[in-house]
UniProtKB/TrEMBL annotation:
Pathways involved: Cell wall biogenesis; peptidoglycan biosynthesis
Protein name (record): ErfK/YbiS/YcfS/YnhG protein
GO MF entry, a single one: glycosyltransferase activity
The keyword Transferase is assigned to this record: yes
Cellular compartments per GO CC: extracellular region
Active site: H166, C182
Residue ranges of domain L,D-TPase catalytic in the record: 70-206
Annotated signal sequence range: 1-19
Swiss-Prot/TrEMBL keywords: Cell shape, Cell wall biogenesis/degradation, Glycosyltransferase, Hydrolase, Peptidoglycan synthesis, Signal, Transferase
Organism placement in taxonomy: Bacteria, Pseudomonadati, Pseudomonadota, Alphaproteobacteria, Hyphomicrobiales
Family membership noted in the UniProt record: Belongs to the YkuD family.
Amino acid sequence: MKIRSLVIAATLGLATALAGCTSDGTFKIFSADYGSVKDAGYRLPSIPISKVPRQYHRQIVSYDTKEKPGTIIVDTNAKFLYLVLEGGKAMRYGIGVGREGFEWSGTARVAMKREWPTWTPPSAMIGRQPELAKWRTGMPGGLSNPLGARALYLFNGSGDTGYRLHGTPEWNSIGKAMSSGCIRLMNQDIIDLYSRAEVGAKVIVKR
């Protein structure tokens, strides 16, 4: 009986491996993709990815949704962003979200995409942090820019929501609620998402 159980277990393990999916629904994990990156004249530092919980590493996972491929779904509670793929899969990214009082949810679309974007702090933020007034007309893109290497600008029927999907140099904020409402990803992840997401893509932010 023991030998038979071992054979059954081995067979199940082989079937899982052949299917390309682990028991937790992960098809592929990209933990090796967080090294230093040269981009547009900048040298992004490597991320000590071993210090980031594994669930927040970029990975292809099983994902059941009626939304069409290309849709972006943000789960602010779980701190995940999903880019819907074909065949019941999604590319999943770990995210940082808005802290208490700055949460946002709803449906929007990607109206614009920018590389190394300029960051302009809103007037309300300058009111809370007067030292940011020097960037009232915009902080140029760069390694210390809060928007990181890429930004996707979210609009809805009323126009610019003021919210962005963007990179951040603060990799240790992933998995936490620390932002002023925007959805932040590690810079290596926002570069990947930027290359996949289309202008006009539907974005659903859930709370």
